[in-house]
Amino acid sequence: PRRRRHRGSCPYFRGLRSNSLLGCGRFLETGRAMTSSQDACYISLLGLAEYFRTSSPPNIKKCIQCLQALFTFKPPLKVEARTHLQLGQILMAYTKNTELARNHLEQAWMLSENINNFDDVKFDTASLLAQLYQQQEQSSLAKPVL
């Protein structure tokens, strides 16, 4: 028997501070047509990443690997920016690798600057970058971002 998919059941976790998941429809609003195989790859990798992140105990290494694998498909800019933000959030929350977190957040910031109507990613990224700069005692770098 064929299983039914529930609308919004493909997760793209918006933020680690929230348990609510962002559905596929919003995630795939990219402004360019994508093939269904691309959609399936993105959704599968995001679903796996969320599964590993929420496992008990969490498998953060595999979660990060799934998110990094998205970049091999040359995703649209919105997908790329949001994925860089997610990687930065995860690295900040679960690891001590602040340099890699900073690199991903800076990439998310640069990409989101040039995308219209993408304020949620831009503001979340700016907030996290400012926190990271402050932790690294580089507050002067936070001012232009904020």
TrEMBL record:
Record bears the keyword tRNA processing: no
The protein, known as: Cohesin loading complex subunit SCC4 homolog
Pfam families: Cohesin_load (PF10345)
Upper taxonomic lineage: Eukaryota, Metazoa, Ecdysozoa, Arthropoda, Hexapoda
Compartment list: Nucleus, Nucleoplasm
Keyword presence, Nucleus: yes
Family: Belongs to the SCC4/mau-2 family.
GO biological process, one term: cell division
Protein species of origin: Culex pipiens
